[in-house]
Amino acid sequence: MTQGAWASLFSGGKDSSFALYRALEQGLPVERLVTVHPGEDSYMYHVPATELAGLAAESVGIELVEIDPGELAAAEATDSGEQGDAELEPLEAALQELDATLQTAGDGGLAGITAGAIESEFQTSRIEAMAERLDVELFAPLWQRDPEELADEMLDAGFEIDIIQVAAAGLGEEWLGRTLDRETLGELRELGEEYGVHLLGEGGEFETLVVDGPHMDRRIELEATTVWEGTRGHLAIEDAWLE
Fold it and tell me: In 100, 133, 161, 182, which residue has its Cα 20 to 30 A from 237's Cα atom?
């Protein structure tokens, strides 16, 4: 393993959080969490409730690096590929700056990054290429894993996962705020058979927030209302704090 510090690409959702947990479990020296706030739409990043990443980072006990929406340069992209490439630019620049900061601090620079990708070749190919350009390792423990096994591992580890956005047939307003537990997974399996809903929401069917887990010292508490737009909706977070 290359000497130096690691950074976790982190949204607060289940996939990036579980990748972070696995990295810590393996003893990787993760010294920064890196969150991109992509605004309303993104091909590369988890979108909803990234403003809560600061609370999650405080609970985990790792310093957070935040990249603001104004820094994203995807507005002039003409297709998804161009937008994905453009969205990656500020992240790569931030990681280069982080590497320099770690070098100056005597921490050996940036040795690697973690990512929570499961099935998206669009995202993973770009993150892999970025890691190569930065000359760092990539730890992607969820990549190409069986969704059933991953879901079981997350729950067995003690992750408490809330559904905060839905956008798929079969997922109505009543799903907002639900906890992703064994019962919920059973219902998602049925919806997968009927509507093609992915068990872990890999097609964008739903988005999540990890409010507690074995890598967190304090649980995230939420006050929220539901916003429903006919066929899709999200939780509007009105207040959030650590327990």
Answer: 182
Report which of 239, 112, 233, 114 is spatially closest to residue 168, judged by C-alpha positions: 233
Judge contact between 130 and 179, C-beta under 8 A: no
Residue 216 has pLDDT above 70, yes or no: yes
- Degrees, nearest 5: CA angle 152-10-235: 75
Report the side by side order of strands in the sheet with 5-9: 63-67, 30-36, 5-9, 110-114, 137-139
Long-range Cβ contacts of 105-110 (<8 Å, 24+ apart)? 107/4, 107/5, 107/31, 108/3, 108/4, 108/5, 109/4, 109/5, 110/4, 110/5, 110/6, 110/7, 110/134, 110/136
Residue type, 119: E
Is the pLDDT reported for residue 151 higher than 90? yes
- Between these two residues, 112 and 120, which has the higher pLDDT value? 112
Tallying the residues shown for the chain, one arrives at 243
What are all long-range contacts of 152-155, with beta carbons under 8 Å and residues at least 24 apart?
Answer: 153/18, 154/14, 154/18, 154/180, 155/180, 155/181, 155/182, 155/185
Map tokens 């988005």 to a residue: 207
Q: Using 50, 70 and 90 to split pLDDT, how confident is the model at 45?
A: low
